[in-house]
Fold these 3 entries.
Entry 1:
Amino acid sequence: MMSKGKVLLGLSGGVDSSVAALILKNEGYKVDALFMRNWEDDDGSPYCSIKEDFLDAVFVANQLKIDLEEENFSQEYKDKVFSYFLKELELGRTPNPDILCNREIKFDSFFNHAMNSGYDFIATGHYVRNKTLKGKTSLLKGKDKTKDQSYFLHSVRGEALAKSIFPLGDLNKSKVREIAKREGLITSEKKDSTGICFIGERPFPEFLNNYLSHNPGKIEDEYGRQIGEHKGLPFYTLGQRQGLGIGGLKDSKDSPWYVAKKNLKENILVAVQGNNHPLLLSKELDTINLSLVSTLEEKEFYGKAKVRYRQEDQDCLIQITNKKLIIKFDKLQRAVTPGQSVVIYKEEVCLGGGEINNIY
């Protein structure tokens, strides 16, 4: 069989990238793999799985008889992803490091490494699809609606998308595990990774304690009455319920408390009671750092948008102006959070998105 080209696959030691490697090989590509090492601050901690993941990647590469290399992008990750993440938290915003990680590491540093090494394509185990027509590359949702990851890839530059292969885009997760089990891959039963991209699962507040300044202040209700004390505004996000330490207040309803606002000027955290309190709801937002998958001729149109990964697509009016998005939703949205990303769609096509700035 004639090779379809040389592909460098990001092999993470998980089931998705393992099956992606198998599919590419069966389809006739010349496949090599690369394990990315992007976090080194606490390799010895019980929450860091990089050693286990690397051993699994080695085992899968041996099973599939493909070459595996290891590349350290930890400095790039610190400079381009983690430092921005911490800076935004200090400014009272809540950034999404997984989106940054895809744009700056997987589809920039890794992509450039592959192109400079003579590969024709890169590949990953993401549940998305892409299509190039007349020199224009589109990003499409993965067929498995529960696993679609287009939200995380909306800001990847077109040049990288055009040379990316996503072997899992047309598959359901259950089918991927079925393939892995049938082929005897060691990762077939391995649970999916969660937590911050490359940093992994760990108690988040405890982790941030090592990197963020502590500036305690008052927690107030909507009427300005003090109801508690916070340990520093960067440790909280809008809509958060757990970890507020509010309870047993006189004249208080039994409803749980939620973070509704951050007053950076006075270092005050505002909390309200009730999951759908008016201070938690909004219908309009604008963005900074607009990223479009490709140029859009329409500057105003009805489409869909989501303000968090697991959210159902929401009907809205989309306006593109002055390098930003203005989104006007048909229905009230809960806990829209500055720093998070809003991503826009037309049916199956992911058009791009931006970082949420102001909410109304």
Entry 2:
Amino acid sequence: MKIISSPRLLQKEIIRLKKKGKVIGFVPTMGYFHEGHLSLIRRAREDCDIVVVSIFVNPLQFGPKEDLKGYPRNIKKDISLCRNYADILFCPNVKAMYPDDFLTEVKVGRLGDILCGVSRPGHFKGVSTVVNKLFNIVLPDKAYFGQKDAQQAAIIKKMACDLNMPVEIQVLPIVREYDGLAMSSRNVYLSYTERKEAVVLYKSLILAKDLIKDGVVDCAKVIARMRSYILKTKSAKIDYIRIIEPKTLVAIKKIKREALVLLAVFIGKTRLIDNILIKR
């Protein structure tokens, strides 16, 4: 596995490989790998000739009061975990990605201003900008993202479509802990008690699934039941609960065919997100 830190050197290497007809798979990450990341990398390995993984904690997607400095990092462990699957590990520094004269940003309109975009203003502009840059550097044929970040995945799909990017976006299922908690690098912030309580996110999604299966199709009623259930957990503070159309992210009132139930909840000081796709 090659480790490259220069965007220009990586781009030159990718161009060389593409001239040989190689299919490039790409998994962009912020590191601190867990099984969710590895599932994306392994899928890329199955699908593609060359697998590129990036590790870059992107400052543009963190607000002034968010956890940029404290975001968990363990580059040595990450290298060890992906060595058997990746051909290239791209680890640029902030100066390489955002020189002092950097001005250009990518904004995705209303998709970035709703849901997580309300409590994290500017977050998705930062995500779109860095993913756009990474796509231009890596020139992937296929790029892999996790369903846990459903809004992010929808935004990246829309950006790739709107800007005619020649990349296929693959969104893979959420990988969960033994008790259903969605795997996340931020789970490390949870105390022992909070970790046990955090499973309330997943249980509330299962509650929603069961209610809809039993014929409750009024979204307001489903959300009210979820809210009541979550607030029984002392450490929980709800940011939002929404039921939306999966592709457009538009809120719906009645569940007819397919719906995405998603939520963001603070467990103590840690903000966690999760979702479940429901088909009737």
Entry 3:
Amino acid sequence: MLVPKRYKHIISKFVRGEKGTTAVELALISPVLVTVLFGIIELSVAMFVNTVVEGGLRDASRIGLTGLEVGEGSREQAIVDIVNGASLGMVSLTTSDVSSKIYPSFGDIGMPEPYTDDDGDGSYTDGEPFEDINGNGDWDSDMGEAGLGGPGEIVLYSISYNWNFLSGQMIPILNGVIPMTASMVVRNEPF
């Protein structure tokens, strides 16, 4: 297409002009910059919440550790109340979010119940003999027994909860939720 001579001067001036290039560059970079900034803020808040929950769990584990009588309510509810108080209202846990398991020793935490591998496949198969550590009559991949334990026992306190993104559904892969956990292992005092 032929451009009339009077417009050629205007077009060449527009092409050579550098006014507004900073605004165009900012318009191109700002969505990425804002997304990275929000991501850093989200990650920082999630890490802060997890640290606060772990600190609250550490404080709450003293109830089980010392065998403290809590008066009204259960020890589990007292643990949840302490962690919720420590979290500055950022999480709202219930007793179903908290679990505690008793173990024979620190080295047994998360370990399966011992079994005899009769078929040599490297994993437990129904019918193979096993040592029922937790006393439930079934072989378990984690030998811990549910409970707060007695004097001198090893107890693992765990909290599982979901942290909702402050920015909602910005990251569709996770559906706006990050699953979080916190845990604390203690040996109960000989109360």
